[in-house]
Amino acid sequence: MTDPNKPDSPVGDDDWAAAMSEQQDDATSDGAGEDDPWADAMAEQQAAEENPGEQASSDTPAAARAAGDSVFRPLGESTSSSAARELDMIMDIPVKLTVELGRTRLTIKQLLELAQGSVVELEGLAGEPMDILINGYLIAQGEVVVVEDRYGIRITEIITPSERVQKLNR
């Protein structure tokens, strides 16, 4: 076999042995001056396996624990008061409540024929519960009541999410 850098000179077994010993000497001299990250990681893992109760507090840096505490607040008595305080923040947000008597479909011709006194037939039946919508989403059903010459709505049923999906199809 020949050396690629010196194609004319043959390479013998002694040359390979010399190269291998040189490479081994380089590896041991470089490793002695620097810390081996794999060796450190393996030693850390072995220490964690030997002392499982101490790993969370001793292995985790203080900065990581502080960041975790700020993101994930501990559960306790203060959590319920802060949750109530956060809920108070949204209590003044206005929403639009709509009560729907019924629906119908008209052609443009039928719409243009409407005049004062015209009657529009709705799909809802008399006595049937009316839909209560919050910001356009069905949340309940109820019946009309009259209180001191004003209309009102008495909620008779709260709509569950699965019922909302079924009622979207009508």
From TrEMBL:
Chain ranges of the Flagellar motor switch protein FliN-like C-terminal domain: 89-159
InterPro entries found in the cross-reference section: FliN, FliN-like_C, FliN/MopA/SpaO, FliN_T3SS_HrcQb, SpoA-like_sf
Signal sequence bounds: none
Subcellular location: Cell membrane; Bacterial flagellum basal body
Keyword Membrane recorded: yes
Family: Belongs to the FliN/MopA/SpaO family.
Function (record text): FliN is one of three proteins (FliG, FliN, FliM) that form the rotor-mounted switch complex (C ring), located at the base of the basal body. This complex interacts with the CheY and CheZ chemotaxis proteins, in addition to contacting components of the motor that determine the direction of flagellar rotation.
UniProt-recorded name of the protein: Flagellar motor switch protein FliN
The species this protein was found in: Halomonas litopenaei
